[in-house]
């Protein structure tokens, strides 16, 4: 039996998390959009590399065997931010990928300290 999802609380160190937030906040600038695409660029390539490494590790850990040896991103990284200051006050149920989507694994990383928000428990519906 394969696992439906894989979770690590320590996937990023505090220093990495601070670096991630500083980079993404800097690129998002004054935008108040909750969903901000971060296209692959020199500034964020290290984030893509880390997220792809986590996808590969999840694939191996869960025994899904979905990803090829050389993993590449299929879509832009999305920087999600929620609350009264943003276009969406909260994260709502959604579907990450449809049947024609090339994405095989989604990676979600919480970059906020638990004290910075209420709720936020990750929930997933698996068919």
Please provide a written account of the structure.
With 127 residues, this protein is mostly helical. It is built from two helices and two strands; from the N terminus they run H-E-H-E. Strands 1-2 form a two-stranded antiparallel ribbon. The two termini are 15 Å apart. 6% of the residues are buried. The model has no long low-confidence stretch (mean pLDDT 87).
Helix and strand content put the structural class at mainly alpha
**What portion of residues belong to β-strands?**
5-15%
Number of H/I helices: 2
For the secondary structure, the number of strands is 2
Uncertain spans:
none
Q: On the 0-100 scale, what is the average pLDDT?
A: 87
Strand order of the largest sheet: 1-2
Q: Kindly, what is the distance between the CA atoms of the first and last residues, rounded to a whole number of angstroms?
A: 15 Å
What are the secondary-structure elements, in order, as H or E?
HEHE
Radius of gyration: 15 Å
Main beta-sheet strand count, sense and barrel state = 2 strands, antiparallel
**Shape by Cα distribution:** globular
Tell me which oligomeric state these chains represent: single chain
Residues in helix, %: 25-40%
Brief summary of the model shown:
The chain is mostly helical and 127 residues long. The chain contains two helices and two strands.
């Amino acid at each position: 039996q394969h696992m439906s999802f894989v979770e690590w609380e320590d996937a990023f160190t505090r220093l990495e998390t601070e670096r991630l937030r500083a980079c993404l906040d800097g690129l998002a600038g004054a935008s108040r959009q909750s969903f901000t695409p971060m296209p692959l660029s020199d500034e964020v390539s290290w984030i893509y590399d880390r997220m792809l490494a986590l996808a590969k590790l999840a694939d191996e850990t869960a025994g899904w065997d979905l990803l090829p040896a050389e993993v590449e991103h299929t879509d832009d990284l999305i920087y999600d931010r929620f609350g009264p200051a943003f276009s969406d006050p909260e994260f709502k149920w959604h579907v990450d990928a449809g049947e024609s989507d090339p994405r095989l694994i989604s990676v979600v990383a919480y970059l906020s300290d638990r004290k910075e928000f209420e709720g936020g428990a990750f929930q997933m519906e698996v068919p």
